[in-house]
Amino acid sequence: MESVVGALVGRDGEREVLSAFVAAPEGRALVLRGDAGVGKSALLDHVVELATAENHRVIRAAGVEAESELPFAGLHQFLYPLLTSMDRLDAAHRGVFDVVFGTGEGSPPSVMTLGIAVLDLLALAASQQPLLLVLDDGQWLDTSSTEVCGFVGRRLTGSSVKLVVGLRSEVSSGFDTAALPELAVAALSEKASEHLLDAHHPGLDAWTRRLVLDEAQGNPLALLELPPHVRGGRSGRTPEELFGYTGIPLPLRLQQVYGARIKSLPAPVRAELLRGALDGVGSGTAADRTRSTCYRLRDAEEAAACGLLDIDPLSGAFVFRHPLVRSTVVQVATPNERRAAHAALAQMHHDDVERRARHLAASTVDPDEQVAAALETAADSATRRGGTVAAMAWLTRAAELSESREERSRRLGSAAHLAVQAGQLDQARQLVRSDTGSGTSDSPASEVVSGYVASLAAVREDGDVRSSRHQAFATIEGMRGEGVRDRDEVLTRLVDLLLAINLYAGDADGWEQTHDLLDSLGDAVSSRSRIYQDTWGDVVRRGAGARERVERAFSALPGLEPWDVAKLSVAAYHVDMLSQYRPHLQRTVDREAEAGALSNAMSMMHMIMMDQISVGEWDEAERTGQRCLELATTHEHTLFVFHTQAQLGLVAALRGQVERARELQATVDAWARPRGVGFLTQITDATGTTAALAEGDYEAAYLHAIGITPPGTFTPYAHQAPRTLLDLVEAALHTGRTEQARQHALAAQRTGLPHLSPRLALITHGALAMTTTDPVQADTHYHRAETHPAAHHFPFELARIQLAHGIRQRHTHGRKAARHRLTLAARTFQRIGAATWAERAHAELRVSGLTARTSAPLSELTWQERRIADLAAGGLTNKEIGERMHLSPRTVSSHLYRVFPKLGITSRAALRDALDRIPGDQNA
Predict the structure, then answer these.
(1) Angstrom distance (rounded) from CA 892 to CA 889
(2) Fewer CB within 10 A of the end CB, N or C, for the chain?
(3) Alpha-carbon distance 481 to 462, whole Å?
(4) Do 152 and 119 contact (CB within 8 A), yes or no?
(5) Per-residue pLDDT tens for 731-756?
């Protein structure tokens, strides 16, 4: 089918760029951006011709305004023709597509996870023949598909896949921030405009020709469409009467042109066009041929005869001649006509939850509980698939259509809850105001939303957890006074909010009052909230059996909302079992961050970072912390800024970077302590303890440690009290406080710490071994610690116990007996980056008679590691090294990750000097 703007005129520069784009040996992406009607579709057709001539397989798709709120509708257009290749993907990637397209169950994938799956599918499809993906009207693509296309477009280098996107410059879209290369499609020059006009409308009189050129302003579509309109309506009319008042954007003037043709059609044909436009019937050659449930225009030959429709040459179906035709059909219809069309379409899509709900919402004026419930169901479906924006819109509309004040408030509360999780506080505030603007007393739903918004606003502005706690507590008391006894979504959200505030406050009185309040509510408190109640506050006294409860709660992982995953992750961390769920958490946080759900994303990043610290992945923890700090600072989340700095300070202390650790400790403490943010002040105390231990300043370490909890007990609601057990014991032993050390170790045993988590079991047995004077008991507890099934999951604590055991063995069994454990400890400290601890272990090795020469195995490299290190030192990238050694870049990166600690370095720049220091006989 010939392009609507005919042959390319005045586009020599654009054609040159597009020819180079198609001829490029590697994959790449390009965005064509210009005004409506400027010729983007013609240029896309030109790209298709060039690619076809170069033996590319071409897949076309088009954004449709009617589907812009349906998650992944656009992505489905691109991937539908590739379904035959999906069978060649691994099960994990097939599962990702099943979830996204609603054919399987599971948690919505992150943009990164889905994007990688799409890249793999495209790579398979392009393995035999280069592939060109063409997207027209990209500004109408749904948000979820836009994010994935942007992710994929930035990663096509090295593939045989190319992506070209056409965008209207006057309409904002997710592609605006996708960082893809762009080609601006400008209006035609005067000379080119005259050429195009004369070629398609020869014989125009001078007045009409000049008028069209002036009004078209170089827009090819206007040059083609305006002459018949001008000639048909010229008699007795001024230019202002023909085109509307001066200043109307050109696309609206063109819609006026199409509007006259549409209004001339019989009512049944207009109604048919309207149903097609509202349900996303495509336009031009890029019309979507994959949506089997899309409305199919019938009995519309008259519309085709007057130039409003074309016939798709492959499917034979009617398609709109240009997107502006489709837009105009909707704009010229009356409200009643649009509602009738939506009602008919809702009936047609009775089996499609989201599409039916959208049409029902648009067809309904007065409150209708059935329609509101359908919208709420659609919002749940969208949320599960990662379509938070659509879910917020549908819940808001559901609230508008609710018949009762209670249901309206509940649904507005749900919409505001999504807004809060997305970090859109202004939107949440607006929803709260819309619920309280009627002048009646606030509902419980509006109270909980107000609590959420007030809490986050206070945190952002000044970290005021006290006032937020008071408001949440008072609201729950009010609901209890009104007789709430059954589980309620509003109550659950408010309870979880109160528990989160208590977590940050770390105040014993506040926690006790909260326990009393929640106990008075009985079964109205959800089982998951009970888990948070028992693990977030005082795991020592309330954590018995918590691991099993957390595990049962996580068994429902595919059906959990992102915020539920975040809250359960906090519980899992406090019982030291987060690592097994961290892969899912990482996927979720990537999706939440890409989608702008900042509150959730940063909360999850904190949990990931804290788990990385626990398991000795300190480089990764640093990277996670820096990413989170950048987000928190950019979006002015004050509490999250200081929370992240507190964790970064702890990492620095563990690595022996004492000056940086103390700087961060002082910064966080000065902000958190006056505000009563006990969660952070406990971390700063732990940072002080760790930094002092790293320096060997055991007196300072002891003073910091007893600031968290006195020896012989574990301060209630001090989350760092059990975690710093080994710190207090070691500091006490090294300062001659052997009795205090022993009493603290026995208190850990007496309170049942070994039964709460594997990490607490490890350090309890380590503390008991270090403090006993009975050699048999010492050997027993050292053995139980070092052979614990989970010991190697906590390498820093295990290495400290091995170091203490080695020192004890040197004193009791001689130097040779100590070397094995001292060597293990030194290797672990070196591997995880605990520099000062590694120096301490090496010093003990020297005392045990192991010279620097005989300790060389600590730095030995395998042949492959040495070869990779040599190439990296020579300046080659991971990709270049992989090509030489037939390895993937990721495998090369993994080898270098092991090489650096073996050589005692942290960067590529130090590789050459480190390699030169290795004696020749150490090369494997």
Answers:
(1) 5
(2) C
(3) 31
(4) yes
(5) 999 999 999 999 999 999 999 999 99
Question: In this structure, what token pair is assigned to residue 645?
Answer: 């700095």
Q: Do 168 and 35 meet the contact criterion of CB atoms below 8 Å apart?
A: yes
pLDDT of 444 above 60: no
N-term to C-term CA, the chain = 67
59 neighbors 125 (Cβ within 8 angstroms): no
* CA–CA distance, 852 with 836 (Å, rounded to integer): 17
Q: How many CA atoms lie within 13 A of 579 on its CB side?
A: 15
Do the Cβ atoms of 455 and 501 come closer than 8 Å? yes
Cβ count near 333 (within 10 Å) = 20
Query: Cα torsion for 532, 760, 614, 718, to the nearest 10°?
Result: 50
DSSP states of 18-42: HHHHHH-SS-EEEEEEE-TTSSHHH
In three-state form (DSSP H/G/I as H, E/B as E, the rest C), the secondary structure along 726-738 is HHHHHHHHHCCCH
Going from the C-alpha of 796 to that of each of 155, 317, 727, 831, the distances in angstroms are 38, 67, 12, 10
Q: Does residue 250 contact residue 222 with C-beta atoms inside 8 Å?
A: yes
Q: How far apart are CA 97 and CA 74, in angstroms?
A: 14
pLDDT tens digits, residue range 565-615?
889 999 999 999 999 998 888 888 877 776 666 777 888 999 999 999 999
Strand-pair partners of 165: 31, 135
> Is 285 in contact with 239 (CB distance < 8 Å)?
no
The CA distances from residue 263 to 89, 256, 275, 385, in Å, are 51, 10, 16, 40
Angle subtended by helix axes 678-695 and 698-708, to nearest 10 = 160
**Are the beta carbons of 753 and 764 closer than 8 angstroms?**
yes
> 851: alpha, beta or left, given left = phi > 0 and alpha = psi -120 to 50?
beta
Summarised one tens digit per residue, pLDDT across range 481-495 is 877 767 777 788 889
